What does this fold into?
Amino acid sequence: MVALQIRDVPKELRDRLTEIARSRGQSLQAYLFDVISNEARRKDNLAALERFSRKSYNAHLSSDDVLDVLHAARADRDTALGLPEIDT
It folds into this structure.
């Protein structure tokens, strides 16, 4: 494992971080490790979301196509539940 060091941290900031760590029942080192780990995980999640947003997955559906399927599924559900038909 690698050691990280942050220099020139203002005392007020260090005290605040220590207070937050203590309120969570953690040491300052454990708390800062969690903060850094969470930040790295969020960056990975953002990268994955970015990759998904650029792909079409060969799904060339228009908004109207999606709405047609949605309305048909709701009509089938309502029929199965014995609900009256609603015109949209």
